[in-house]
Write a structure and sequence with these properties.
It catalyses: uridine(34) in tRNA + AH2 + O2 = 5-hydroxyuridine(34) in tRNA + A + H2O. By secondary structure, the chain is α/β, with parallel strands linked by helices. It has helices spanning 16-30, 51-63, 117-125, 137-142, 159-166, 183-194, 206-213, 255-261, and strands at 2-10, 33-39, 42-49, 75-81, 89-93, 113-115, 130-133, 143-145, 174-178, 199-203, 221-223, 225-226, 233-234. It is globular. Residues 249-264 have low confidence and may be disordered.
C-alpha cells in the first residue's frame, strides 16, 4: 500500500522559483511521485510514496528550513492506493496554484466560512441555501451532492464567468460550495465575497474529508469522487472505486497532467 497526500496552502511564497529545484530533489531522494505546483500564492498538489517518506516530506514542508515555517497550516488529506498512482514526479511553477484569473481574488486575505463535514448535511438541506459544485463537468458527471448546481464548466477558470452570467448577490444570499479537497472553494469563495456575495460557505477538507468522516448511511453524496491520479475515483471511506464510467478520461499516461489541465 502507498500513502497518498493531497495538500495545499495559500501562503506568500515570493521565492517560489528558487524552491522548485530543491523541492524536486527532496522528492526524488525520498522516492516520492506525483505533482506539486508552486506559485507566489502558495503550494498545491498530490503525492504518493511509502509512509515514512511521505511523513518526512510533510515534516519538511511544515517546519523544515526549505520553506522556513511558511507552510505551517497545510490542508492535508491522506488516503491509500494499492499501487503507485503516479508515473513521475513533477514540481511545476505556475502563476496561480489554482487558476481563476481574477486580480481581486486573494485567499490569503479573504475566504468564505468553513463548514465541517459533520455540519454539511444540515447546511445544504436548508431551503435558503444554494449549493454549488465548483468542479469541472467530467468530475460532476462521476458524482456530486444531492441537489447541487453543476456550473457545466470545462476548467475552473470559467467559474467566474458562470457566476457573472448566472448568479446575483441580491438574490442568492446564502451559498454553500464544495470541491475535491477544498482549494477551489477557497478561491471561489474569495472571488464571490470580493464581488458582493455576503454569505458564502465551503466544505472544509472538501469531498474527500466528507467521504472519510460521514458514513454512507448518513451521506448526501451520490456517486464517486474523481481524483487526479490513476486510482481515478474514491468512494465512502476513501476506498478505491470499482465502478468507473468508460467515457471519462481515465487512460491518460500521467494523471498529474490531467490534474493541471483541470486546474485543481
Amino acid at each position: 500500500m502507498y500513502k497518498v497526500a493531497a495538500l495545499y496552502q495559500f501562503a506568500a511564497l515570493p521565492d517560489f522559483r528558487q524552491l522548485q529545484a530543491p523541492l524536486r530533489a527532496l522528492c526524488d531522494q525520498l522516492g516520492i511521485k506525483g505533482s506539486l505546483l508552486l506559485a507566489d500564492e502558495g503550494i498545491n498538489g498530490t503525492i504518493a510514496g511509502k509512509d515514512a517518506e511521505i511523513d518526512a516530506l510533510v515534516r519538511e514542508l511544515e517546519s523544515g528550513a526549505l520553506f522556513g515555517g511558511r507552510l505551517n497550516n497545510l490542508e492535508l488529506k491522506y488516503s491509500r492506493a494499492s499501487m503507485m498512482p503516479f508515473l513521475h514526479m513533477k514540481v511545476r511553477l505556475k502563476k496561480e496554484i489554482v487558476t481563476l484569473g481574477d486580480p481581486l481574488t486573494d485567499p490569503n486575505k479573504l475566504v468564505g466560512t468553513y463548514v465541517n463535514a459533520a455540519d454539511w448535511n444540515a447546511l445544504i438541506a436548508a431551503e435558503d441555501t444554494l449549493v454549488l459544485d465548483t468542479r469541472n463537468a467530467f468530475e460532476v458527471a462521476m458524482g456530486t451532492f444531492e441537489g447541487a448546481v453543476d456550473p457545466q464548466i470545462a476548467s475552473f477558470g470559467q467559474f467566474k464567468d458562470f457566476v457573472a452570467r448566472t448568479l446575483d448577490p441580491a438574490k442568492h444570499k446564502k451559498i454553500a460550495m464544495f470541491c475535491t479537497g477544498g482549494i477551489r472553494c477557497e478561491k471561489a469563495s474569495s472571488y464571490m465575497l470580493a464581488h458582493g456575495f455576503a454569505e458564502v460557505y465551503h466544505l472544509k477538507g472538501g469531498i474527500l474529508q466528507y467521504l472519510e468522516d460521514i458514513p454512507a448511511s448518513d451521506s448526501l453524496w451520490r456517486g464517486d469522487c474523481f481524483v487526479f491520479d490513476q486510482r481515478v475515483a474514491l468512494g465512502h471511506g476513501l476506498v478505491e472505486s470499482q465502478s468507473i464510467r468508460p467515457d471519462l478520461p481515465i487512460n491518460s499516461e500521467d494523471f498529474a497532467l490531467t490534474r493541471e489541465a483541470a486546474d485543481e
